[in-house]
Design goal:
Elements (H helix, E strand, L loop, with lengths): L9 H5 L8 H22 L5 H20 L3 H25 L1 E3 L2 E6 L3 E2 L2 H18 L6 H20 L3 H17 L4 H20 L1 H4 L11 H11 L10 H12 L11 H4 L11 H34 L3 H26 L16 H26 L6
Helix pairs in contact: 2-3, 2-13, 3-15, 4-5, 4-6, 5-6, 5-7, 5-14, 5-15, 6-7, 7-14, 11-13, 13-14, 13-15, 14-15
Pfam family, one: FTSW_RODA_SPOVE
InterPro entries: Cell_cycle_FtsW-rel_CS, FtsW/RodA, RodA/MrdB
Subcellular location: Cell inner membrane; Membrane
């Protein structure tokens, strides 16, 4: 008699692909995604198809997360160098014959129009993690110097475009890798002290530094204007300071409980600029208040904590550094966006993860979370493997 074999159904084929996924990380992602959909509908229900498109972008990011999570972390090491080289080459192409929009040259046509700086958000920390993994156990001061050069090259090219927001994100991700690789504290403390002294000096000397016509040699005029507007938004309340002032009014008017779902007056009377993108935190704060903000901030803190916890359990230096970089990417995104909308940081055009509308940023974040899930999955599967004893 011919033997009969039970064929696995679709569910039995799919479930093994989710084996090893970190459940806490999945819950935190679902929590933030739910807040993002709620905020987008409330702020953008009368703004064309933003809510539907936002949901589509989330599904695309989830698919990318799922696919990337299937790849073992060791495979990422194989693409670190070529991906970094490709990203830097495309940044050079932008510099030479890029496409200019609204005064910024950030795009290049390679058959389709792309923004290469988005690649470096992942490629730069990936390259640095690969570099330190190769030098594990034999790190010298020169290795850290080379790492700084590897990071400074794409950051300088992105700032040249100019794109201060993206350059800060790439810089933060890269510096987190260098720090967690074992950068000595004697090299960390002096720049921090220097930054504190510089910010204090800037605030103290704001009256003459921000005089019209004054030139700052290290910054573009628009960047100087952003800093001066941050220090004193009432200098031009109906012009350059309008965004910051309206953002602070919206956040303050939300109070503890908020004005309610779809009931924000500052939001829907068009006082908040870019209410579905960069300034959606102001719209969310107005409608959901302090309690809503706490729910959002706790979600981001849990995401960062889980990323660092996954990093601590990783069995390879490469996995630890990549997980730390992803955690710091989300911390930087959230901190910079909330800070600029609240008036404590300059407006630099950084989206709020899961909340702001934007397909490219959502895809990049899905890729980053996929890398983090890959590290967690690898660690869990290694623990599940049977231990052989002699």
């Amino acid at each position: 008699m011919p033997a009969e074999f039970d064929k696995p159904n679709i569910l039995q084929r799919i479930l093994p692909m989710f084996r090893g996924f970190d459940p806490i990380l999945l819950l935190v992602i679902a929590w933030l995604a739910g807040i993002g959909l709620l905020a987008m509908y409330s702020a953008g229900y009368d703004h064309g198809t933003r809510f539907v498109d936002h949901g589509r972008n989330m599904l695309l990011a989830a698919a990318i997360l799922f696919v990337v999570a299937q790849i073992p972390p060791q495979k990422f090491m194989m693409v670190a160098v070529p991906l970094y080289a490709l990203g830097v080459a495309l940044l050079v192409a932008v510099l030479l014959f890029g496409i200019t929009k609204k005064g910024a040259t950030r795009w290049v046509n390679v058959g389709v129009v792309i923004q290469p700086s988005e690649i470096l958000k992942i490629a730069a920390p990936l390259m640095l993690a690969w570099w330190f993994h190769r030098r594990e156990g034999a790190l010298r001061a020169m290795d850290f110097l080379i790492a700084f050069v590897l990071l400074a090259l794409p950051v300088a090219l992105i700032m040249k475009q100019p794109d201060l927001g993206t350059s800060l994100l790439v810089l933060a991700a890269g510096l987190s890798v260098i720090f967690f690789a074992g950068l000595p504290w004697k090299l960390v403390v002096p720049p921090v002290v220097l930054a504190v002294v510089g910010i204090t000096w800037l605030i103290w000397n704001e009256p003459w530094l921000c005089v019209d016509g004054q030139s700052w040699y290290l910054l573009h005029d628009y960047q100087r204007t952003r800093v001066c507007t941050l220090l004193d938004p009432m200098r031009d309340p109906l012009g350059r300071g309008f965004h910051i002032i309206q953002g602070m009014i919206a956040i303050g008017s939300g109070g503890v409980w908020g004005k309610g779902f779809m009931a924000g007056t500052q939001t829907h009377l068009e006082f908040i600029p870019e209410r579905t993108t960069d300034f959606i935190f102001a719209a969310y704060s107005e409608e959901f208040g302090l309690l809503g903000n706490l729910a959002l901030i706790v979600g981001f803190l849990l995401l960062v904590w889980r990323g660092l916890a996954i990093a601590a359990k990783s069995q390879t230096l490469f996995g630890r550094l990549m997980a730390c970089a992803v955690a710091m990417i989300f911390f930087t995104y959230a901190f910079v966006n909330m800070g600029m909308v609240s008036g404590i940081l300059p407006v630099v055009g950084v989206p709020l993860p899961f909340i702001s509308y934007g397909g490219t940023a959502m895809v990049t974040l899905g890729l980053a979370l996929g890398v983090l899930m890959s590290v967690a999955r690898s660690q869990r599967q290694s623990l599940a493997e049977p231990k052989h004893t002699l």
